[in-house]
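Supplementary Methods. Inverse-folding protocol.

Structures were first reduced to a discrete structure-token string of length 150. This string, shown here, constituted the complete conditioning input.
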């Protein structure tokens, strides 16, 4: 089973807009690269010749997969969608609320465990779980919480 080949055909207005993005104004480097990908992949009647995904990727020093994704977004969605980065759909759940932060700060300011001069981040994380402040927490999360308070 082969990959789907997305055929980019730009109108005269779309070409003008993309050329403006690459030559004028202040645009993010990613937007300029996306515009260059579309200009180089154009097979429309206003095109000056198109390149293969491989040659576009090599020319712009990006991955072929990126070229594919930009072409796909242009064909399936719109020019604007192809130019802008897709917002992340990932949701992050916060483990640390204000109560946990306060408890960790109090714990870190308290007496270090026997045999240690001070608390390590890993020891604080283990103690927070042991005292049932949270089900689990990484030392990196503890570091971020404590860093905020310094």
């Amino acid at each position: 089973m082969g990959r789907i080949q997305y055929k980019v055909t730009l109108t005269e207005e779309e070409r003008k807009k993309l050329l403006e993005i690459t030559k004028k104004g202040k645009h993010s480097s990613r937007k300029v690269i996306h515009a260059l990908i579309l200009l180089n992949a154009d097979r429309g009647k206003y095109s000056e010749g198109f390149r293969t995904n491989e040659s576009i990727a090599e020319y712009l020093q990006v991955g072929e997969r990126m070229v594919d994704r930009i072409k796909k977004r242009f064909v399936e969605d719109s020019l604007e969608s192809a130019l802008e980065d897709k917002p992340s759909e990932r949701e992050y759940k916060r483990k640390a609320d204000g109560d946990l932060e306060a408890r960790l700060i109090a714990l870190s300011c308290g007496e270090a465990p026997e045999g240690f001069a001070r608390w390590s981040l890993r020891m604080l994380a283990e103690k927070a779980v042991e005292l049932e402040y949270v089900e689990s927490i990484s030392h990196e999360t503890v570091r971020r919480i404590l860093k905020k308070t310094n």
